[in-house]
Amino acid sequence: MEHLPDLCKRDNGDTVNKTYPKYALMPQFTIQRDILCDTQTDGGGWTVIQRRTKGDVFFNRDRESHKNGFGKPDGDFWLGNEAVHILTYMQRHELRIEIQSDGKEYFAHYKSFKVESESNWIQPLRI
C-alpha cells in the first residue's frame, strides 16, 4: 500500500483535484478517511486536511469531533486531529494555509509541520 503523502504527490499536475474514498492512512493503522489531494496549487501534491469554502459544515464542535474529523471532502471538512497526527508524526511535512478575505487571497507556507499525539493536545500544533 502506498504511503499517503506519496499518493497525493503522484497526482501532481493533474487538471482536477482527486478524492480517494476510505483510504487507509498508513498500512499499520486501521484508520481510514476520504482523502482529498490538491493536484494544482503550488505544484500539486498537497493532502487537504481542512476546507471551509461552502459554509455547509459547523466547525464549532467538541474535542471528540475534532479528534475524529467531520464533513466530507466534496464540501467543508476537517480531516481530524488523530488522522493528521498519523500523517505527520513519522516524517517532515510542509503546511500551506490559504485564506480568502474581501476578494483577496493570502497564503502562508511552513517548511515543517506536525500534529502531536492526543496526550499532547493542549498544544498539538508544531510549526
Automatic annotation (TrEMBL):
<feature type="domain" description="Fibrinogen C-terminal">
    <location>
        <begin position="1"/>
        <end position="127"/>
    </location>
</feature>
<dbReference type="InterPro" id="IPR050373">
    <property type="entry name" value="Fibrinogen_C-term_domain"/>
</dbReference>
<dbReference type="GO" id="GO:0005615">
    <property type="term" value="C:extracellular space"/>
</dbReference>
<dbReference type="InterPro" id="IPR036056">
    <property type="entry name" value="Fibrinogen-like_C"/>
</dbReference>
<dbReference type="InterPro" id="IPR002181">
    <property type="entry name" value="Fibrinogen_a/b/g_C_dom"/>
</dbReference>
<protein>
    <recommendedName>
        <fullName>Fibrinogen C-terminal domain-containing protein</fullName>
    </recommendedName>
</protein>
<dbReference type="InterPro" id="IPR014716">
    <property type="entry name" value="Fibrinogen_a/b/g_C_1"/>
</dbReference>
<dbReference type="Pfam" id="PF00147">
    <property type="entry name" value="Fibrinogen_C"/>
</dbReference>
